[in-house]
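Input C-alpha coordinates:
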Protein backbone atom coordinates (compact mmCIF):
# COMPACT_ATOMS: atom_id res chain seq x y z
CA UNK A 1 0.00 0.00 0.00
CA UNK A 2 1.38 3.39 -0.94
CA UNK A 3 1.93 6.14 1.61
CA UNK A 4 -0.69 8.31 -0.09
CA UNK A 5 -3.29 5.55 0.25
CA UNK A 6 -2.38 4.98 3.89
CA UNK A 7 -2.79 8.68 4.70
CA UNK A 8 -6.18 8.76 2.95
CA UNK A 9 -7.27 5.69 4.89
CA UNK A 10 -6.26 7.29 8.21
CA UNK A 11 -8.17 10.46 7.32
CA UNK A 12 -11.23 8.32 6.52
CA UNK A 13 -10.89 6.50 9.86
CA UNK A 14 -10.65 9.79 11.74
CA UNK A 15 -13.86 10.94 10.06
CA UNK A 16 -15.81 7.92 11.30
CA UNK A 17 -17.62 7.78 14.61
CA UNK A 18 -16.24 5.39 17.28
CA UNK A 19 -19.13 2.92 16.93
CA UNK A 20 -18.46 2.46 13.24
CA UNK A 21 -14.74 2.06 13.91
CA UNK A 22 -15.48 -0.68 16.45
CA UNK A 23 -17.66 -2.45 13.85
CA UNK A 24 -14.88 -2.14 11.27
CA UNK A 25 -12.39 -3.48 13.81
CA UNK A 26 -14.59 -6.51 14.51
CA UNK A 27 -14.87 -7.21 10.77
CA UNK A 28 -11.11 -7.03 10.33
CA UNK A 29 -10.49 -9.34 13.28
CA UNK A 30 -12.85 -11.91 11.74
CA UNK A 31 -11.00 -11.60 8.44
CA UNK A 32 -7.68 -11.98 10.25
CA UNK A 33 -8.93 -15.17 11.90
CA UNK A 34 -10.07 -16.56 8.56
CA UNK A 35 -6.74 -15.70 6.95
CA UNK A 36 -4.84 -17.44 9.75
CA UNK A 37 -7.05 -20.50 9.34
CA UNK A 38 -6.45 -20.54 5.57
CA UNK A 39 -2.72 -20.19 6.15
CA UNK A 40 -2.69 -23.10 8.58
CA UNK A 41 -4.54 -25.34 6.13
CA UNK A 42 -2.43 -24.25 3.16
CA UNK A 43 -5.30 -22.59 1.29
CA UNK A 44 -4.11 -18.97 1.60
CA UNK A 45 -3.88 -17.27 -1.81
CA UNK A 46 -2.48 -13.86 -0.87
CA UNK A 47 0.03 -13.87 1.96
CA UNK A 48 0.38 -10.08 1.79
CA UNK A 49 -3.23 -9.66 2.90
CA UNK A 50 -2.33 -10.95 6.38
CA UNK A 51 0.01 -8.00 6.91
CA UNK A 52 -2.42 -5.50 5.40
CA UNK A 53 -5.20 -6.59 7.74
CA UNK A 54 -2.86 -6.46 10.74
CA UNK A 55 -1.77 -2.92 9.81
CA UNK A 56 -5.37 -1.76 9.34
CA UNK A 57 -6.28 -3.14 12.77
CA UNK A 58 -3.41 -1.18 14.29
CA UNK A 59 -4.49 2.02 12.51
CA UNK A 60 -8.08 1.69 13.73
CA UNK A 61 -6.93 1.05 17.29
CA UNK A 62 -4.72 4.13 17.11
CA UNK A 63 -7.57 6.33 15.87
CA UNK A 64 -9.88 4.95 18.58
CA UNK A 65 -7.23 5.79 21.17
CA UNK A 66 -6.97 9.33 19.75
CA UNK A 67 -10.75 9.77 20.03
CA UNK A 68 -10.86 8.59 23.64
CA UNK A 69 -11.26 11.55 25.99
CA UNK A 70 -8.04 12.39 27.78
CA UNK A 71 -7.93 11.81 31.52
CA UNK A 72 -6.60 14.66 33.61
CA UNK A 73 -4.33 13.80 36.49
Amino acid sequence: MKLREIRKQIIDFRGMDPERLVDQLAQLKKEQFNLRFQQATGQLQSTARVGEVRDMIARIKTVLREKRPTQSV
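The chain is about 80% helix and 0% strand. Residues 26 and 57 are 9 Å apart (CA to CA).
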